[in-house]
Amino acid sequence: SQSDQRPLQNPKNKLKRGSLTVLILIHIFIDPFCILLQIYSRPYYIYYLFFPFSREFLLCLEICSVVRPSLLPENINHDIVTEDVSFEKQKGYPDSVGKGDKKMELLERNAPCWCGSGKKYKKCHEAFDEKLKMYENKGVLIPTHDIIKTPSQIEKIKESAKINIAVLDYVAEHIQAGITTQEIDDWVYKITTEAGAIPAPLDYEGYPKSVCTSINEQVCHGIPSEDIVLQEGDIINVDVSTILDGYFSDSSRMFCIGEVSPEKQRLVDITKECVEKGLAQVKPWGFLGDMSQAVYDHAHANGYSVVREIGGHGVGLEFHEDPWVGYIGKAGTGMLLVPGMIFTIEPMINMGGPEIFVDDSDGWTVYTEDGKPSAQWEIMVLVTEEGTEVLAY
Ligand code: MF3
Ligand code: CO
Fold this sequence. Notes:
alpha+beta; 4-stranded antiparallel beta sheet; 3-stranded antiparallel beta sheet; binds 2-amino-4-trifluoromethylsulfanyl-butyric acid; binds cobalt (II) ion
């Protein structure tokens, strides 16, 4: 497949020294008047002493950055490359990754903030947005406001995630050789609905069951059935997703049924490590590609391959939101990560090649092309000011 790698140019690089001089001269003559005007026209002039991220300060920074790019808050790779998006992604998933063409707009300073805090924009997210804007101007793909969750939304999503965890804990305690995958589906439906929630997969795009159960060479989206009996030596992914009061959560775990072969056990363990290594790379003002590369590198270092077509996703207000979360991106590329974003890390790692196909007969179950086993763990991660919080696992 041919890759769609579009280096985004930073237009400021083209700013000539001459125009910079003109800009500085204009400032030398105009600024004193502006400052006087500000002092007399509004009581908030003191604000500029305490809020260094005011527009004027940012403007200075931007001018400096033309002369000395290293003065920027972070040394950004200007040749941002989006992920290889040439392959077709799974149905129902957002596909806007890589299309950073709609520019963010700053609000009027006294308008109510977009986050719903009830505060004025200038007292809430204005500085945050100006920082985002600066990254956007550098050619970075920035998150849109609708995928940045507010504290009250996060609280509700956490409640949903608690149920998701409890369901998987129950599965972990009861799963064993001899049960059918339909029984797992029954447990998931019962526990979820008794907690006042709804299993998100049920009726999702026509999906017939409450949970996905994918065994051995099944990569994901396996449909529970009375005819499928768990055997000693199987490895199975149980993928649970919950809707509580309209808030979504999503996570999955691997289970080894009885004694499994050392090869399968290693695949399961390394896949879990891939998720952990990916998670360790997630940080506010980092890039999604930092995580992707960590996952990819660890899988390949262990002789495995990574499924390309199916990935993780933003989650919380919808089942599948932006960004789409692949594992073939390079560090320093992909969407900028900011506090309040929630997404899943759920790589599918294959013992053999990365190729997959969808079962024609049910339209859902995904298999490895070469029939070798595949494993997947899924966690749901919140980006915080300090780092991350795992909401569901
Ligand atoms: N948890 C899977 C995901 O990550 C959910 C698939 S639900 C299905 O998206 F209905 F699409 F199977
Ligand atoms: Co998911």
